[in-house]
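Support request from a user on the community tier.

User writes: "When I paste my structure tokens into the form, the page sometimes reloads and wipes my input. The last time it worked, I copied everything first. Here is what I submitted, just in case something in the input itself triggers the reload:"
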């Protein structure tokens, strides 16, 4: 499943600067236990999907899982062995910009020790440091 926006205002966007910490989405909204980003970085749609699959497999498809991030940031790449100049490259994949403190995943309807086990499996698929928070 390719996670990407259905429609965007612009095909390519500028890189921008990542925030150090996030204060809006740093608490649980839906579930009782969550996976929180400690450091900021970009997470590709493949990494989000791999983490989701790992968490679902450990939960034996019980309980409810929420994905709180969406890959809406296009990452461009120029082909190999192309000279400098000639504009920006094509969109290679979609990613999500994550600041430290963001909640990435939430779970409810499952025991805490099983959820912690699942989040440990999912966090190993992500490129940033995370921690588990329990409500």
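"...and here is what came back when it finally went through:"
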């Amino acid at each position: 499943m390719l996670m990407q926006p259905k429609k965007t205002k612009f095909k390519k966007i500028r890189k921008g600067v990542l925030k150090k910490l996030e204060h809006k989405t740093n608490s649980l909204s839906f579930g009782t236990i969550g996976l929180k980003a400690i450091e900021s970085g970009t997470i590709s749609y493949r990494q989000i999907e791999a983490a989701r699959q790992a968490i679902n497999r450990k939960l034996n498809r019980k309980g409810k899982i929420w994905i709180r991030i969406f890959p809406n940031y296009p990452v461009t790449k120029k082909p190999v062995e192309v000279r400098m100049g000639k504009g920006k490259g094509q969109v290679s994949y979609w990613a999500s910009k994550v600041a430290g403190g963001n909640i990435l995943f939430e779970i409810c309807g499952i025991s805490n020790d099983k959820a912690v086990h699942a989040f440990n499996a999912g966090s190993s698929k992500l490129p940033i440091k995370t921690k588990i928070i329990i409500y």
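Agent notes: The reload is a front-end session timeout and is unrelated to the input. The mean pLDDT is 93. Residues 45-58 form the longest helix (14 residues). Escalated to web team.
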